[in-house]
Amino acid sequence: MSWTQLNLAVATPEIFLLVAALIVLLSDIFLNERNKSIAYGLTLAALAGTAYLLLQSAGQSPRPGFNGMFIADPLSQAAKFGMVIGVALMLVYGRSYARLRGIFRGELFALSLFALLGMMVMASGANFVTLYIGLELLSLSLYALVAMQRNNVHATEAAMKYFVLGALASGLLLYGMSMVYGATGALDIPTISQRITVHGANNLLAIFGLVFIVTGIGFKLGAVPFHMWVPDVYDGAPTLLTQLIGSAPKLAAFAFTFRLLAEALAGYKPDWSSMLTILAVLSLVVGNVAAIAQTRLKRMLAYSTISHMGFLLLGFMAGTRDGYAASFFYAMSYMLTAAASFGMIMLLSGKDFEADQIADFKGLAKRDPWFAAMMLIVMFSMAGIPVFVGFFAKFAVLKAVISTGAIWLAVLAVACSLIGAFYYLRVVKVMYFDEPENQAPIAAAPDSRILLSVNCLLLLLLGLLPDRLLTVLTEAVQRSMLP
Amino acid sequence: MTMQTIYLLIPLAPLLGALIAGLFGWAISRRAAHVVTIAGVGISFLLSAYVLKTLLSGGDSFNGSVYTWLTVAGLEFNVGFLVDRLSAMMMCVVTFVSLMVHVYTIGYMHEDPGYARFFSYISLFTFSMLMLVMSNNFVQLFFGWEAVGLVSYLLIGFWFKRPTAIFANMKAFLINRVGDFGFLLGIGLVLAHFGSLDYAEVFKAAPSVQEATITLFPGHAWSLMTVTCVLLFIGAMGKSAQFPLHVWLPDSMEGPTPISALIHAATMVTAGIFMVARMSPLFELSDAALNFILVIGSITALFMGLLGIIQNDIKRVVAYSTLSQLGYMTVALGASAYQAGVFHLMTHAFFKALLFLAAGSVIMGLHHDQDIRNMGGLRKYMPITWITSLIGSLALIGTPFLSGFYSKDSIIEAVHFSKLPAAGFAYFAVMAGVFVTAFYSFRMYFLVFHGKERFGKASHHGDHTDEEEATDHHHGLTPGQKPHESPWVITLPLVLLAIPSVIIGAVEIEPMLFGDFFSDAILISGNHEAMAKLGEVFRLHGGVTGMGTHAFITLPFWLALAGVALAWFFYLKRPDIPSAIRKAAGPLYSLMENKYYMDHLYINGFAAAGRGIGVIFWKLGDTILIDGLLVNGSAKVVEFGAGLVRRIQTGYLYHYAFAMIVGAIILLSWWLGGILPALR
Amino acid sequence: MTLALFYLFAAILVLAALRVVTARNPVHAALSLVLCFFTAAMLWMLIKAEFLAISLVLIYVGAVMVLFLFVVMMLDINFESLRKGFWRFFPVAGTVAAIMLGEMLLVLTSRYANLSAARLPEPAAGFNSAKALGKLLYTEYFLPFQLAAVLLLVGMIAAIALTHRQRKNTKFQDPADQVAVKAADRVVVLKMEAEKPAHAETDTTHTGEKA
Asked: Transmembrane ranges (chain B) (predicted)?
């Protein structure tokens, strides 16, 4: 055992991020309330540095490290890049929002960075232990972040629910992992995968564990019936943290699922495929139907997340390279779309005012035509209307589903999307055809305005030119799959 | 700079200009708006000229993808360019005319509140048109096709406060939909039978399916190529305003004059001609389709020209002239003389743009009076406009040695040599068309520039349609007021367009028609020998000058001369005769006055029937079946489900945890149920 | 012998766990949990994982549970209200639990479960589990070990952020302020007109207590 065997270089971005997070944490001690912007700047610099380091390693073939505990492959690097973007968007959109609510503090920055670190570990873990600790790192940071606004009753309640249910889910996941360990005698993914292939698929103990692993994954993604936390947490948490929960972790969950199901338990594909089908169908139906009844935008978006995760699972269900790539594309585009949607809410929110009701968007087209158009793009993309990226994400998934022969699933998914279009378009209708209740112009900082516009236009651009991103992601999946 | 970068820059430069002027028009000055767009189109023109020069001096043509837009089921949708001499020539024509129109617009739209918007639109049009001509596949062709249609729609309705403009743009849009429907079906057939949308692949595979047939209705097997080509040509009929889909073009004159010149004369309407020429390897495989094209083209060439005679709106005269000339081009395509068609397309682009812009200059000089009955004697006041108009008219009627002569006479001769059954009728139509063209052109010319000065009569104020937002403008001149020549930004494009109108025919006829200019782009099958015979005759007469001198002893020349003479006699010498004829030929006149009742047929026939059917479907299908049963029914189900889910979402932690456990059990049971038989 | 001990401890463990949820007295419940930990430690001992067993006792019994007992005894939590509805939900919950148990048994007792494959290897003579564990942690499991440290750090940050940061509406005394206060600050004498109604003003007294 030596340093060279550890191969620390593969985790350069993570190591950099950890050091940067510690620096941000320490810097907070020396900064008074007025100088928090310095910590904020440091945080953004940390993210930029991480992104830079990730780009440095782009295109390299899979490199294991830490005695096989960690793997930096194209899939994980691409996912991590997306996560960094997601967290950065959250910080920029939420800057004044956090300041007005008294949570513009060192912990916000440090915990966000730690959460990001957790996500990155989830993406790169090549061992059940690493994966699990990454998940816990993310979850623990999120619990604390949601509860940060302590005098907000809704936020504390949300944090409480999130924490208890999260602990339950992670217990189930761990139980499942231990079963797989018991059955295969290994914790690291390539070995598990290999032993399962050798021993054949009728090892009941491992499949028994698989059920609980799927449960844990279902919770993390917010798939029905493990979705109950999603509406309450999305709604209760301060919007900037809703954005954090709703965007980047979906990518982490994708990579996590990929590691566990597509790599480690690939031998049980028929088993988990049918389980995922149940989750996907339930998510699509419940998510879309329940979203219609919502009047609160954040709650509506929460149910819409559930339905989107149904789509993501459908890609997995297909269990092919193209299916995984479609899911990956879906996660990536959903991350951007969700970030933009919550960014819009924060853009319209003021000091003592949360624009989290659909009614708050009334007449936005008259107040601010530009951002009404941006919100229109976001909603159209979520609804999966062509030329926006959401359409191509859905399209890619459906293609993968159809290629497996499950036409009925594709039909069902399309039908659910149609139901979904109703509530997205209702937001558009409210923006363009209702009279504004609030005439005040939008007061938002130029940085978030510009970035939000870029983000929304990106949804359009990626919809117009989806092929390059899809090719990159497909290639990443292709090169990262175990032989 | 590599060639590929240049190819990319050519369409992107105008697009960038359009985006800047369109999205930031509110922020930048008017000056900045026209500077960026003119710069974009200017760059594009220079590069196009460079590309053409490279190709002519032996450079290789380019055919390749730039970006893969989408891959579906093994089928790639690419953004790609095919730059050969045909497209390079089109690029030059498009960008040159567009550049002229941009400059002209500075003067013409000077006072318009939508100044930046207008520049944005015409630059966007240039981009779309370039995408269309540079495309190397059907998808991009269709994109360009629809994009130019969209911009045309936007520009016809540019003055969106005028109901006539809105009616006109709606009409243009709907009629084009009919054509596009055929076009799309044609593309669909190509895709279905060739499995590719790439020109090169389709053309390569085309000869092998020449004998293939398809059965559209049981019992009737039709040649695949004929059906495909006719469908594609229906698309061209919509875009190039061929009978019976021509009715939108005269109405499109509701748009500002610069776009009439750019879109509805020089470029967009020729897209159909270009498309057919580009698809020559397909069309050559079907004589039936070529006959169809010949018939449609000759009807358009003759009968639309006739309508030009009775128009009194200066722009409408030019519009009917355009229709007629498009008919000529179509006839050339039908006779397999693609070169001649494209050649006429090019010369026509210059002199027709010139005529339109000159008409615009006249309209400005007369303060937005468009009625030629209120003009006359303008040559004294607007010398440059007068001279350039004369040149344009002479070129149009085919005066020997001017550009229109070479292209039009080539077409007439090509029809003469064509052996298709429809060629006889076509030959008659194009020959008669020569006389008609000369007559209406010079009728307009004499009425506008010669004779008595009829402007400045107060009674004409505001009693006709005109082109400005009718608020603070007075229309026509007040008594005693004199017209004046237009500023240099208007006259400069006129002069610059007059030059090619004179010389381009003589310069280019030899390489384009009889050289190997289009050797790599246009394919003519061996049994269509019109072009070959045309070449023999051309050499027999001794080339460019020989063809010009020989013309004096041919029929077309004398027909044209007769047309001019008759126009002079009727409208300068004895202005009482035309009104006498009008009275005498009552029914015939009202037939023409009503444009052969085509509009009536469409509006009261098809449109009314369509609406009738629509009402039935709406009442029966929509209100009862869909609204009542499907929408409201399913909405109720969904509402119920939503309420149910909401009730389950109690907010109690233990309910949630319980749901999770139950979920895990469901998964476990599902799986167990599947393998239970194997357990024991 | 080992097997007999295993069943004994396992039975105690299950019973104790049941007591944790059913006991009326919270102190009893906490003590049952302590018993759970103890017996679990014994189970680990049986598979010769003495380090883990000792850690469990030291950390969970010695630290966590003692702290928990303090909390239970010192805070006035109404456990009756928390337990309300326990018996009402019991039938449903019990059914679910029974199904779960049944299915687990079905799987684990099946001959395809292949439990024998999961048998632990017999440790070599002189095997020291603490030493082996330490070695593993610092070599093979270096990354998870470090990450676990980060996880603990996050736990600390979270705990401090959620409890120790200054609250806006907590009341506390600032001795320095109290000492520095002057008589003049404490009593303000107001002149009042006799005819004025009584509710005009109230005395303001400054005590050094901050709101």
From this structure: 6-28, 35-52, 86-106, 118-135, 141-160, 181-200, 220-238, 259-277, 289-310, 317-339, 345-366, 386-406, 426-448, 488-507, 551-572, 653-672
Q: Look at A134 and C147 and tell me if their CB atoms are within 8 Å.
A: yes
Q: How far is A77 from chain B (nearest CA, A)?
A: 24
Residue B619 in this model has a pLDDT that exceeds 80:
no
**pLDDT for B464:** 44
B328 within 8 A of B297, measured Cβ to Cβ:
yes
Nearest to A463 by CA among B74, B70, B20: B70
Those chains having 3 or more beta-carbon pairs within 8 angstroms of chain C are A, B
Please give the residue of chain A at the shortest CA–CA distance from C151: A137
The CA-CA-CA angle for residues A365, A366, A370, to 5°, reads 50
The pLDDT value given to residue B459 = 47
pLDDT digits (tens, 9 = 90+) for B245-283: 888 888 888 888 888 888 877 788 888 888 888 888 888
> Nearest-CA distance from A65 to chain C in Å?
9
Whole-Å CA distances, A171 to A168, A176, A249, B661, C139: 5, 9, 19, 12, 27
The number of CA neighbours under 13 Å toward the Cβ of B575 is 10
Torsion over CA: A149, A155, A160, A165 (sign): negative
| Distance (Å, whole) CA A12 – CA A49 | 11
Question: CB–CB of C108 and A107 under 8 A?
Answer: no
CB within 8 Å: B649 and A271:
no
Residue B85 has pLDDT above 80, yes or no: yes
Q: Residue A133: which of C139, C147, C162 has the nearest Cβ?
A: C147
**Mean pLDDT calculated for residue range A301-327:** 92
**Mean pLDDT value across residues B292-320:** 86
Determine contact: C100 vs chain B, CB below 8 A. Answer: yes
d(CA B344, CA B331): 11
Of all residues in chain A, the percent with pLDDT exceeding 70 is: 98
How far is A372 from chain C, CA to nearest CA, in Å? 37
Residue A105 contacts B, CB cutoff 8 Å: no
Domain count, chain A: 1
pTM of the predicted model over 0.95 = no
pLDDT tens digit string along B428-438?
888 888 888 88
Put simply, the answer to whether A278 touches B670 (Cβ < 8 Å) is yes
- Highest mean pLDDT among A96-105, B53-62, B257-266, B589-598 belongs to A96-105
Contact flag C162-A147 (C-beta cutoff 8 Å): yes
The ipTM is 0.91
Strand partners for B261: none
3-class DSSP state of B64: strand
H helix runs in B569-652, sequence order:
576-584, 586-593, 598-600, 608-617, 632-648
For residue C202, which phi and psi values (nearest 5 degrees)?
-110, 155
Rounded Cα distance between A24 and A30, Å, is: 10
Asked if the Cβ–Cβ distance from B638 to A214 is below 8 Å, we say no
- Is B672's CB within 8 Å of C103's CB? yes
Q: Which residues contact A319 (CB under 8 A, 6 or more apart)?
A: A262, A269, A273, A404
Q: Is A461 on the interface with B (CB under 8 A)?
A: no
Domain that holds residue A69: 3-480
Mean pLDDT of B1-20: 85
Question: What pLDDT band is residue A130 in, cutting at 50, 70 and 90?
Answer: very high
Which of B650, B660, B665, B671 best probes binding to C when mutated, by most C CB atoms within 10 angstroms? B665
Does residue A64 sit in helix, strand or coil?
Answer: strand
Q: What is the pLDDT of residue B473?
A: 44
Model confidence at B402, pLDDT cuts 50, 70, 90, reads confident
- To the nearest whole Å, the CA of C15 is away from the closest chain B CA by 22
How far apart, in whole angstroms, are the C-alpha atoms of residue A34 and residue B160?
A: 54
CB contact under 8 A, B679 and C100: no
Kindly give the parts of chain C with pLDDT less than 50. 200-201, 203-205, 207-211
